[in-house]
Amino acid sequence: MSRWKAPKLISVAALLVAATAPISVNVTAHRAHAAPAQPHAAPARPQATGPVNPGFDTGDLTGWTVTEGTAFGPTAVTTTDTYWGGPFHHRGSHHLWGYAAAGDDATGTLRSSSFTAPTRMSFLVGGGWDPERLYVALVRDSDGRALLRQTGPEDEAYVRIVWDTSAWRGQAVHLEVVDRKTGGWGHLNLDDVRTGDAAVRDDNGLTFRTLGQANQPTATRDYAADPLRPQFHYTPYQGWINDPNGVIQWRGRHHLFSQYYPDAPKWGPMHWAHAEGPDAVHWRDLPVALTPPPRATPTDNSGIFSGSAVDDDGTLTVAYTKFTDTGAHPGATPETVAVATSTDGVVFAPGTEVITEAPPGSSAGFRDPKLFRDPVDGRWKMVVGSGDGGRGKVQLYASDDLRTWSYAGVLTEGDGTTGAMWECPDLFELDGKWVLLYSTNEGGRSLQRYAVGTYDGARFSAERHGVLDGGGDVYAAQSYRDDAGRRVMTAWMSDWNAKEPTRVGGWAGAQSLHRELFLTADGRLGQRPLAAADSLADGRTIRVTDRTVDGSWRLGRGDTARIRAVLDLGGTTADTVTLRLKASAAEATVLRYEKSTGTLTLDTSAAGYGTRATYTTHVEPRADATLALDIFVDRSSVEVFTGDGAALTARVYPRYRESDAVEFTATGGHLRLKSASLTPLGSAVLPD
After folding, report:
1. What CATH superfamily classification does 537-680 receive?
2. What homologous superfamily is domain 239-533 in, according to CATH?
């Protein structure tokens, strides 16, 4: 796993939107002149329709009062449309950009005019995540009590927050924008405050998904409350996850560990979250398996980085990277390998360091050990990700007992074109060949790569290279051989550059569906959903056969669904066939196939709050000139599998409740469908 600068420790429990508890990539830009604070003014007569100047479209702070500091001077109101990561997605001509007045180091508060509390209200929020120091609050005039609070998404781009304010209907209230944070992401953005019916409906008549207050954590762990939380993918209830770790079937149960930070929906001192289930599809949370030592300093990011698991004669044994933050522990070795064991699959004995320093030629890093039993010599082997001189590489170790390890040299290395550091390596035998998985960053894009070749017990020689998933959100893949002999793989369904609007609900990150790996006839590494995914079906399936589509045709609707389609390319005259997923009049995730080139494209540029991008892969039709698609649509993800083993995966975050249609379109001719079906899918969460 990558080492990224972590936030200060903040309790996710602070996200609860209660009146009694405070809730809360640096942007590099020219620092504007800070405006002096305006004197505190008495509240104006409450306005029935909401605050004065709710979208700052007067071009200034009319109706708003700076009550403290310099964070919200007049120059914070801006017409700026884009930032370093894309558009702000503000409404109207102006918006309040908390960075524009005085940068991240300034602090202050901004107060709206008073208004009469409606039954509902909503607003757009952007900027940093810090529920204790950075938030928008609804404050009662009579006693100054903060009734509701909401922090930002750690992104300049706006996310719509919807509040139920019926408990205070008719009372005089106002909004306060609070910035008490300095340093990176020390600012907040605000726009388009709405009240009444307009709070939940857009100008085009579509209904906003309810983010914010309604999906805060509850004691009963309501996984269905958040309209962006995947229902059949593993996610943290609160906090952050990234790389899957220690995937294994042990004593008949499938185990999934994950890089985990429980105290904020951002990367922090890493733990290992733990879940298990009967079929690698359904999951039940178990106690946290591995926990880092207490922080030596408030900014100490030491933690338990990625690793793997094996069955050592009935003992569940995990190897992981022990990361020590040298800023908090001067002179320490930053990355070593440790081993921990469990006899019940739940409680792990304290880990023991087994490799105390990286081998020579590891200047880029030394992490993510993957264990396997080597059929060449019968010994335990360990591959560890590394890199040096701009070339990613994999280091190899050998052992007889999983405790004493000897360095066996460089397993393989890149030529400089596939990243300077190879993370999360995984070496295994499949269908008579050897496969190496590794994750890397190339030109700012996170990629999950693979190589197919030969292995002699000491060196891996690649014969073919490829990208495992052509989408933008598959990274840190890890596999295991299950009891049925299948090679099963899962991956972090995100990447280090991805947007995470779910932070406004206190969580971030998801793991992909578990997939079966196989080699295709032409030697590529293919993947397909597990057969057990059929058990997710939860409702009536819509099925059609032998249908011709001229123009557009809607198959059905499904916010969580499986869509299967077989395209008859011989009978299709259109060169471009489009499948709009999670679609409404305002947004959609678009899957597009071009017959002439065999290119399959997943386009998220109009999919909602998430990353705007297009992803492509090449697809080979079957011998009978058909193309099979198997698509899993969850609340905030799309996974596309093709009949020839290709895949495209992306996180998407629709803004509107109506964005759940599945529509086929043919351009320049007609589409011939041999069959198509839509099956609603249910939750993968097992009761504790």
Report:
1. Exo-inulinase; domain 1 (2.60.120.560)
2. Glycosyl hydrolase domain; family 43 (2.115.10.20)
Six-digit token string for 564: 């299967």
From CA 306, how far away is CA 321, in angstroms rounded?
Answer: 6
pLDDT tens-digit readout, 395-414: 999 999 999 999 999 999 99
Tokens of 420: 């300077």
Task: Write the pLDDT tens digit of every residue in 138-194.
Answer: 999 999 999 999 999 999 999 999 999 999 999 999 999 999 999 999 999 999 999
Would the CA dihedral through 191, 46, 24, 511 be positive or negative? negative
Count the Cβ atoms, other than its own, within 10 Å of residue 404: 9
Amino acid symbol at 13: A
What does the DSSP assignment read for 427-467?
EEEETTEEEEEEEEEETTEEEEEEEEEEE-SS-EEEEEEEE
| CA nearest neighbour of 312 among 418, 403, 242, 205 | 403
Distance CA 470, CA 639 (A): 11
The answer for 652, left when phi > 0, alpha when psi is -120 to 50, beta otherwise, is beta
Is it true that domain 17-215 has CATH number 3.40.50.2300?
no
What are 277's strand-pairing partners? 254
Question: In the structure encoding, which two tokens stand for residue 105, read together?
Answer: 């180091």
- Output DSSP code: residue 99: H
**Per this entry, what is the length of the chain?**
688
Break the chain into its structural domains and give their ranges.
17-215, 239-533, 537-680
Say how far apart CA 441 and CA 446 lie, in whole Å: 4
Both structure tokens of 77: 């109101």
What is the distance between the alpha carbons of residues 548 and 545, in angstroms, rounded to a whole number? 9
Looking up tokens 């090679």 gives 487
Locate 453 and state its tokens.
């070749």
Helix (H) or strand (E) holding 102: helix 98-102
pLDDT value, residue 1: 60
Per DSSP bridges, beta strands 134-140 and 146-150 are antiparallel
Strands 303-312 and 352-355: unpaired
178 token code pair: 């609070």
Token representation of residue 319: 């190897």
Burial classification of residue 670, based on how many CB atoms lie within 10 Å of its CB (0-12 exposed, 13-18 middle, 19 or more buried): middle
pLDDT over 60 (residue 38): no
Distance CA 610, CA 613 (A): 9
Catalytic residue numbers, as ranges: 243
Non-local CB neighbours of 593 within 8 Å, separated by 6+ positions? 567, 576, 577, 578, 599, 600, 601, 619, 627
Residue 544 CB coordination number (10 Å):
15
pLDDT band at 43 (very low <50, low <70, confident <90, very high): very low
- Segment 449-494, tens digit of pLDDT: 999 999 999 999 999 999 999 999 999 999 999 999 999 999 999 9
Q: Which residue has the tokens 């995984």?
A: 426
Asked if domains 17-215 and 239-533 share a fold, the reply is no
Classify strands 445-455 and 460-467 as parallel, antiparallel or unpaired.
Answer: antiparallel
Contact between residue 563 and residue 644 where contact means Cβ atoms under 8 Å apart: no
Distance, CA of 643 to CA of 519 (rounded, Å): 13
- The bridge status of strand 405-413 relative to strand 423-430 is unpaired
Alpha-carbon distance 679 to 315, whole Å? 40
For the stretch 648-686, pLDDT in tens is 999 999 999 999 999 999 999 999 999 999 999 999 999
pLDDT class of 18 with cuts at 50, 70, 90: very low
Is residue 255 within a helix (H) or strand (E), and if so which, with residue range? Answer: strand 253-261
Positive/negative CA dihedral, 404, 407, 411, 417? positive
Q: Which helix (H) or strand (E) holds 449?
A: strand 445-455
C-alpha angle with apex 516: 514 to 520, nearest 5 degrees?
Answer: 145
Confidence of residue 48 (pLDDT cuts 50, 70, 90): low
- Locate tokens 């059949």: which residue? 232
Give the per-residue pLDDT at 219. 80
Q: Residue 222: enclosing H or E segment and its boundaries?
A: none
